[in-house]
Each structure stands twice: as structure tokens, then as C-alpha cells.
Amino acid sequence: MRHLTQLRIGPIGFRIGSHWRRPLAALDDLYRDYPAPHDGIADFNVHLFAARPWRRVLRPSVHIAGDFVIPDAAPLPLAQGLLAAEMGMNLQMALGLRRFLLLHASMVERNGRAVLMTGISGAGKSTLAALLMARGWRLMGDEFALIDCATGLAHAFPRLVSLKNEAVDVVAQALPGARFGPLLEGTPKGAIRHLVPDACAIAAMDVPAEPSLILFPRFGFEAAARPVLPSEAFVRLTQSSTNYVSLAERGFDALTRLVQSVPARAIDYPDAETAIAMVEALA
Amino acid sequence: MLYRAADPATLRVVPLDALTLVYHRASGITHIVDAPVPEILAILAEGPRNVAGLLGVLVERFDLADPDPAALAVRLDELVGAGLVERTCAI
Amino acid sequence: MDDPKPEEQPTRRRALMLGAASAAAIVSIRPALAQTSASVMHCEIPVTDPGRAGSYIAPDGRVVPARTAGAFPAPGRSFKAQDVKRALNGGTLPGTDPQASRAYTNYIRRLQRGTSGFTCFASLQMPRG
To answer: Which of A82, A48, A80 is nearest to A64 (CA)?
Structure first.
């Protein structure tokens, strides 16, 4: 591919090839403080390509592929190339990660102990993670939590935080000095802006933490909290893991150990401020 | 018609609070099971039984609220469907 | 991790229930992506979902009150994933004219979590949302 870049997020190195310079320039800029892959060797390849040679120029449309693909995935316009690169990296993690149990969760750390916030897209986990970062927590990730099957420790994947719609303003107010990527409008998930994790998150990306609390947050309800039993936590976490099944018995061991040793709570919250207070009280 | 449980060596059984987890090594599938499944699996691990025999053991070992062979047959069908139990014909 | 030892028999027998035929006692964890790839070809996206029947769809895909100028009546039916995929790549949804098709396609693009059809769309766009 004509244009190439490499970067490492936590333990995972990516090599991204593209028919266009623009999306890679955006990645290089926003990820400029991130390290290179360990030993210069990437774990995954991502390809951003045009379906036909003339589509590099005429109504340029970015198709996403790599070591792992979803066939016939809908392409994105070149203006959203940065989002395409992110989706490409997500795809490799979701389909190809075997070194860790992958949970769809945001994660923050304080004093060596990690709080995991799981939930489907739109539950608010990225926004909560960004706001907790603003309050001094170390951001470990906004989308994926990596659990080491052998040790049970949580490893960070501090990619650019993907904020949607109204959350962008809320977070920008809480983090006046932060770096943001360009505003991407009209994406499949609405308006998106990426937030660069702070220096603390980047510096500590290789430092694992012990999972100490699992939260199942729900946005838009009166404040409430209830304990979640290990059996319920187990089922809900399998739903939030893309690789639980392919890890076979290793995954079973890692997840059963997690739910038996880490308390879980479901929290409902009407607004971000309430959520932050609840998380800090429970952690 | 006898029911035989999967070889115990192929099952990892982890009881949690309300439910029990069963990882079946032969298939790689994780099952989340409710009572009376773990109890049935434990009895069948001792040796294959037919419905009547299994029901008898359950009644003997537990305070069974609904000792109905039809209900037990439904549970066994579920277990067969999940691959944790197989039907064999007595010869 | 050790498996639990065989239960010691309590002197008072533990209560047990066989349970109703309608209630399942076993839930098996299935691979999420295998589920989606099998169902992607068969899943359907309703336009619009039943809670908003009678609304119209503006050209940019927003759901608007009935008879808004420039908007198209919601077809009130579901489209197969195959057809949606084709439409997202520049085709036309079956049974619609090109402008209406563009509006419906934009509606489908704008589906947010909680509206029926989103899971099907998410499985087309990216893994597990």
C-alpha cells in the first residue's frame, strides 16, 4: 500500500496501510506521543483501500480490511477516514485478539486498582471514562478492557476516546486543555470527536492493574445501585466479550475467576455528574 | 432408553450463586445451568439410568417438590439438546 | 481451580424442583459473531419501528411528523439485510423510488441503540456495535 504508519496502543501494535495519506496523517498527529510496536513488529495489519482505482479520487470511499475482515462491510467517505482507521483497529481486536480476554468496557485505575464499566454502545462508558480521567483517574481505555488469562490482571488499551454527539461538549468543558481530533459529522453513529488520552494515561499504558470493581451503568434513569451476583455478571460479560468463545477453557477460567473475585454493581444515573459521584463512592 | 452423562473428565463444573457454570471441553461450549441440572449430571456420572430410575434417585436424595416423570423427561431432553447427556438404548 | 467435591449427603434432604416444561434450565453461550454472520443474511430492518408508525422520513433520514413537506411516508415495512447492504452501497431499496430510497437508507444509517433494527445494522457495519 502506498502509505503506511505504525503505532502501539497498550500491548497491541498495529500496522496501517492506506491508499490515502490523509487518514494516516490524522492518526500520526493524534497518536504522536504513542510508542511504536514492540520490536517494530505489529500484531495486526489494517488496510484502508479503494474498491476501484478511480475511487481513490472520484467520490473517494474507504473500505476497511486487514488480517481479519467482515466481508461486504459498508465503506466510509474519505472525510471519515480517521473513523475508518479506528474501526479497522477495533475489528482486528474484536476478531483476532487471543492474547487476552477482551471485554467491551471502559476502564480507569487508581492506586493499582481498576474499575471496569461495561455496556453496549451508547451506554455512556466512553464519556464516564473521560470525565473520570478529568478527575485524576488514570484512563486505561474507553472501549476494550484486556484481561490476562494467566494472571487475571487488567491491561490498558488507551486508544483515542470516541465521544458522540452531546458528550463531546460535556467532556470538552471538563477538560479545557485537552487535545481533540476533528469533528466528524454524519457518521453511522452520529457526530463523533476523538479525545487524546492525557500524558498520564499514555505514560502508564504498559502498567497493568488489578480489577477491583465491575460496573454495569445505565444512562437516563433515576440514580440507583444494586449488587450484581457473579452468575449475572458472568452472563452479561460473555455478551460483552468478542473472544470469550474462541479462548475456550482459558477464557472460561479467566472469566469465572474474574466474577468470583471482583464485586459487581449495576448503577443507573440521570446525568454524568451523578455517575461520577456514584463511581467514586463505590470504588 | 438409558441416559448417559458426558464423561466427567470433559466437564468443568463451577457452582456460582444462583446458577452453575458447566464448561464442556469436548464442544468448547459454556452452559449456564439451573437446578436440577447439576444434580442430574452428578447422578448420571455414577452410571446411566432411565427416567424412572433417575427419578427414584432424585426422590431419595432430595426433597423433590414435583416428582413428575414428564417434567424430568423435559429436563433430560434439554440436556441431550445441549450435548451434556446422550440417549442410548438398553440392550 | 478445583472442581467441587461430590456433595456430602445432608441429614435433612435439600429441596429441589424439576421445574416447568416452559422454563429452560440451560442457557448455552454461543459465539456472538457466528450468530450475526448466520443471521445477517436473514435479519430485517423495519422502517420505521412500530413505535413510530405513521411518521414521515426526511431526506436526511430524520423521523418527522406526518405530511412534513419534502419528506416521504415511512413504508412501514421491513427490509432484508441484503437489500439494505445493496442500498448502502448505492443501490435502491426494493419497491421505492430513488429519492425515497435515499431517505430510508439515511434513516437506517441513523439508527441509534434502542430502536429496533439497530443490532442488525450494527452487525452489517462492525462487530458487535
So the answer is: A48
Lowest mean pLDDT among A46-55, A130-139, C26-35: C26-35
- Domain extent listing, chain A: 3-96, 100-282
Tell me what pLDDT residue C33 has.
Answer: 40
The pLDDT value recorded for residue A187 is: 86
In a domain, C106, yes or no: yes
Q: Pick the residue from chain B with its C-alpha nearest to A244.
A: B30
Residue C13 inside a domain? The answer is no
Report the residue from B21, B25, B28 with minimal CB separation from A234. B21
Partners of A146 in the β-ladder: A102, A155
- Mention every residue, 6+ apart, whose C-beta is less than 8 A from residue B27: B83
Q: Which residue of chain B is at minimal alpha-carbon distance from A228?
A: B17
High-pLDDT (> 90) share of chain B, %? 67
Domain count, chain C: 1
pLDDT at C49 over 70: no
Coil, helix or strand for B30?
A: strand
Give the Cα separation of A173 and C62 in Å (integer).
28
Q: Which of A30-44, B23-37, C14-28 is predicted with the least confidence, judged by mean pLDDT?
A: C14-28
The band of B90, judged by pLDDT with boundaries at 50, 70 and 90, is low
Average pLDDT over residues C36-55: 53
Please give the model's pTM, rounded to 2 decimal places. 0.78
Q: Looking at beta carbons, which residues of chain C come within 8 Å of A188?
A: 109, 121, 125
Q: What is the mean pLDDT of residues C94-98?
A: 73
Cis peptide, bond prior to residue C48, ω within 30 of zero = yes
Q: How far is C21 from chain A (nearest CA, A)?
A: 22
Q: List chains touching A (3+ CB pairs under 8 A).
A: B, C
Q: Per-residue confidence at C35, pLDDT binned at 50, 70, 90?
A: very low
Residue type, A213: L
The CATH number of the structural domain formed by B2-88 is: 3.90.930
Cβ–Cβ contact C98 with B under 8 A: no
Listing DSSP states for A142-202 in one string gives SSEEEEETTT--EE-----EEEETHHHHHHHHH-TT--B---EEEETTEEEEEEPPPHHHH
Whether CATH 3.40.50 fits A100-282: yes
